[in-house]
Design goal:
Elements (H helix, E strand, L loop, with lengths): L6 H5 L2 E2 L3 H16 L8 E4 L6 E4 L22
Parallel strand pairs: 1-3
Antiparallel strand pairs: 2-3
Bound molecules: zinc ion (ZN).
């Protein structure tokens, strides 16, 4: 339910990744570059579950279906 989401997320058209997750991805990208892997790209996608636009580092859902991991959506990526 949308009522469970923080107000910031409800008022934005696009759900943003929290800064901690973005930083995490930057660190991973640095490591990936050193390992000659292509970096993780953050892009705006439409959630396949609820249709919300959200910043994704590869996830297909914005986290709406997994309440506890909702705001750390980017953490599913290795
Ligand atoms: Zn969703």
């Amino acid at each position: 339910m949308n009522l469970d989401l923080p107000k910031d997320y409800q008022s934005n058209k696009v759900k943003r990744l929290p800064p901690s997750v973005v930083k995490d991805i930057e660190l991973k990208n640095h490591a990936r570059r050193l390992a000659n892997l292509s970096p993780i790209r953050i892009k705006v996608r439409t959630c396949i579950s609820c249709g919300t636009l959200f910043e994704s580092a590869g996830n297909r859902t914005c986290g709406c279906n997994t309440r506890s991991t909702g705001y750390i959506a980017g953490r599913e990526i290795i």
